[in-house]
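User: what does the whole thing look like in 3D?
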Amino acid sequence: MKAYFTFFKIRFINGLQYRAAAYAGVATQFAWGFMTILMFSAFYKSNPENFPMTFENLTTYIWLQQSFLALFMAWFFDNEIFDSISSGNVAYELCRPTGLYEMWFVRSLSSRIYRVVLRCSPILIVAAFLPAPYGISLPVDIMAFFLFILSLALGSFLMVSINMLIYASTFYTISPMGIRILSVSIFELFSGAIIPLPFLPDNVHRIFNLLPFASTQNTPFLIYNGYLSGKSVFHALLLQIAWLFTFVLFGKLLFRDALKKVVVQGG
Amino acid sequence: MIELKNISKTFKIARRNAGFGEAAKAFFHKEYEYVKALDNITFTIPEGEMVGYIGPNGAGKSCTIKIMSGILNPDGGTCVINGRTPWKDRINHAKEIGVVFGQRSQLWWDVPVVDSFELLKDIYKIDEKQYKQSFDELVSLLNLESIIKTPTRQLSLGQRMRCEIAASLLHNPKILFLDEPTIGLDAVSKIAVREFIKSINKNRKTTVILTTHDMQDIEALTKRIILIGKGKILLDSDLSTLKKQYTKHKIITVEYISGQPNLIDGLSVAENNKNRLVIAIDTSKISVSNAIAKLSESLDITDITVSSASAEEMVVSMYKELNI
Amino acid sequence: MKLWLKYADIMLRSQMQYKTSFILTAIGQFLVSFSVFIGIYFMFARFNNVEGFKFSEVLICFSVLLTSFSIAECFFRGFDTFGGIISNGEFDRIMVRPRNEVLQVLGSRIEFTRIGRFLQAIIVLAYAIPNSGIVWTADKIVTLCLMIIGGTFLFAGLFIIYAGICFFTIEGLEFMNIFTDGGKEFGKYPLSIYGEGILKFFTFIIPLALIQYYPLLYLLGRTDNPLYMILPVFGILFILPSYIFWRFGVKHYKSTGS
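Assistant: Here's the predicted 3D structure for the full assembly of 849 residues, as structure tokens:
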């Protein structure tokens, strides 16, 4: 575990070196968030009653989305892992004493966390100072904040476990690129990345909520801004845990099966 | 003909610092330093000559090559190649040069080699007749018949290298820049490539500039060596003169039954296996015959071999002496 | 130019080598744009209109933009991925060949899988055209074509600017995405909904509104001013300053190396 902290530290220092990239990244995300909010505000003006949450809720959601983008980006994959599978180098990684699933899981997770840490504070700080209602608001109450953190963690783990399934699937097919793009396209809509799920028509919303994708970023952000409250929060958290459990289990099984193949074929 | 006079080039490089504190500081205020990559480079290479352009990493070799290819413009000095200034007349100059970058391929990866060649024919506007002639000659000399229809990605490194070299010569350039052409190749391929380059130079009178760390390439192909270090030309002479000047030792390999070597001043042991010694003789301190005499006093010798230092060792001692 | 066709031929053959990958990627592209379309659909299902624009009208805007973007992305991909071309030394190789650099960069990457996005755009356009309530007289058709052509050149110009910036730094490039991907993303709605400031920016600095908003007003009959019809031409002209910037970048590259 210490190794990962060092790995993280080195990456972080490295990230600081590329300051232009950091500035540019923050600026880009900021512009993105800003434009999205403008878009929603145009829709709000046309029909405020149909807005499923308060406008402040929405802006908070958008800023949270931008800050924590790296945690939930569907198109973010570790190319090294793909290369290692397609080239057969994965055989070397199997020689290590840690489980392959666990190793890649922690690696993917730390890559995402490192990116988030680099980006999220500037965005959150700027968003906090924006004039209401365009800025980010504080969480509804302290309890909501803690539950948000918990849900954020669960959502990130779930995200990575879905990633792991995608990695596992490449053991079986030849085209990682195709799988990647397909998964990204499905993901974006269902997870609330394109528009927050509450904006969808009610029946569609209900269905999407049950799918695993909603349990990644949609849930934690809605807990924070108070859209979900009371019992529904606990339901949502339970759902996250359930999906996480399912995907991790499925992922590990798939890995075990795929690796058996690798060993039999000799890499 | 290649003529460089007083070429200089300076670069501005951002300083990267280690450690967390330094990195955070650098985040807000970047520091730069000026590096003189080339300092008054002057040399002339007549048509048809093969030159080895050597030097330690970072000495300025690739910088010079880039200037000669027309990719980079120098800060000062003149460079005239076949009557043109490379960076001023890029397109016309490019028609007459061929470049092989050892580690980067110029062939299209997923299509058969012959398709890449066809596209190069169009890029270089080679006319049909000349193309066919070039093509046939290169394919036969480099033994490409069996691999010419294979996609580049399926070739082994040796096969790919041969195709690369053929590709760079399709348009019959007058000057060929070779950057590490034999890197990673097995012994057989290396020899094939060297033989080929020699024959091209002989038959087509192609001027060849070879940058490499492989001294065997240098020994096999070139007579003249230009050594660059820290941006300056340090040596420009032929290989044999340099060898005489810089290798002051010979190697004796001795096989013996019993005894202990008596190591007087000027003799040092390079290797000591069970009954086999490799000794370096500093010929400025002791002659070869005296050394043998001394050794046979204390060892019961069964076999003895005397060899000169290799070009590798010559280069090492050159670098040491010239402080680069 | 004939040489470009030869490049296109070799690119096509290269990509067809990986048939499964090609098809899956194209489908994926289609689905990604489809998700965006669904997003718009859902928004309009909930809110009837936005700033006075109906669903079918917004669809015209969206599909025109996506069509131009996918064409530009397919053929100008070399500029879009120029960072890689510089960092792996491919540009040096280009400089050592006796042909125009722009032609070579264009020929270095032509991504036919973008046809997935293109198809999605065309399908939506095909739906939107009859359903928008626009009377398609000759001038309207010309406007529509100009919008698409202008948009293609605009995005191509943005890619070229991006590539030009690569000559100076590989680091701060992400912000260009605001204009390329951002343009595609936020341009799906008529630019007026974002407010005065944004509209002005995209009129005078990066003429996205000139190929999207103003001609759209003409199409929808909200203005009779024929001037609005030819505004997309400025989108086409945008490629000139982009090219000049690019050449400036090449000069810089030649004096500082990589």
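In plain terms: Chain B touches chain C through 34 residues (CB under 8 Å). Residues 187-204 of chain B form the longest helix (18 residues).
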